[in-house]
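Structure tokens please, single chain.
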Amino acid sequence: MQKQQRIAFVTIVTLLLVIVAVLTGVALGRKANDKNQMDTGEVSYGSQTEEVFSYEEVSGEYRIKNLNTEQEGTLKIPSSYNGKDVVAIDRLTSTINVGGTEVYHSKVTKVIIPKSIREISDYAFYGMGNLESISIESGSALESIGIGAFMNCKSLASVSLPDGVKKIGYGAFEGCSSLTGFFFGANVCYIGENIFFNCDRLTTIEVEAGNINYLSRDGVLFDYNQNRLLQYPYGKTESNYTVPASVSEIGEWAFFGNKKLCAIDLNQTAFIRKYAFFKCENLASITANQVDFVEKDVVSDTAWINNMTGDKVVLGKVLIRYSGTDSSVNLSGIVSVAPFAFSGNKMLQSILLDNAVISIGSEAFFQCDNLTDIYLNNTHRMVNIGLNSFGSCNGNRRIYVPANLYAEYIGNVLWKQYTDELAVHQTKLSFNSNNGSVYSDISVGYYDYVGDLPAPQKEGYVFLGWYDNAELLGEPIEKGLLWKRLEKTVELYAKYRKKV
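Here you go.
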């Protein structure tokens, strides 16, 4: 009996020890799981575990992407996974509509980025419309921010980037309409175009002293040498602005959408890139004496162009728009023709561009269906063209170029699209020998040299030369003369003297 009692006692004690061990294991398991969640971004649901992010291992390090669970408030990016560093943040929304108005992960208001992150890649936080702040740990390794990384984060009011950031991609903060200011560090060496597109509250852009690539002046972003004006803040409130005299180029989208700017003096600016003043709806005055070249839509939807009433709209030395009805147009003193300047003009049949013209923009003569004769009379250099400057090829159209440059035109890559239309204008020379010998017509090309001319015989007279007028006045037309005329036909008259 006593032995049986001892056996029962031992059994009970053993059972109690097993229960204690099981309970202790569960508790330790929970602690381990909590630690794993903190380090790797996992969330437990009963017996199932779901990772907050998806992970991709590259060269022994991890990149995160796809925020798989609905997060609320603060989103902490993990610094490690499976004992290895997390070094990059890829797109956290698997499917996005770039350019749309959708809001993604709408409950996330703050993001904490660990110092291990070196790259925030393209569209990483795209469309997180309620994201208000970004906290980056001190000692951060962050160097690169990709295209559209924070695009349409409309509640993001400020961003403080670590000193190590070097590259910021195209449109990185586009649509961040709560941003009021931005500061670039000393090590930034690349800023993509359109970085602050539609940041309509942005009033100032600053650059840290010591940056050798960029600088800020009065809150406006320039390249270091102030040759290029890169970004005029959308929300800047001044009504007048004078571009510094050192600036030769205005960057694309530089002033886009500014509603306050009424007058601008471009000073020594020679080149304006696309959309530079697009939708500056109150911009009514532009001083642009030195402008030689523009890309497309530089002044579209501005008060300046909307107030223009003449057939020709000229900015500096650029023909921006022609809306006349003449069948033949002669442009003089124009250095370049802007993209789409004549586009869709059905009345135009012939155009002559004089010696000053050196550039014709993309689709400048697109859908000018009745344009058959184009004279490019710059004899010093080939005229540059853009894509489809004259639209599609037309078997009835001729593009006349000087004889001295014809070979260069034929061999140029851009001009290859119009090789079959290129020609040298020929002038027919007919001979009025004033009752002397009769000769057939010959021709001479524009800016080519006159060849051999006949010497007519007339009884009792000595031939003295050919003249282009019946009065036989002026200089004679002789072999070797550089032909600079564009008439279709020139009649030459023989001059004689009586034999003694």
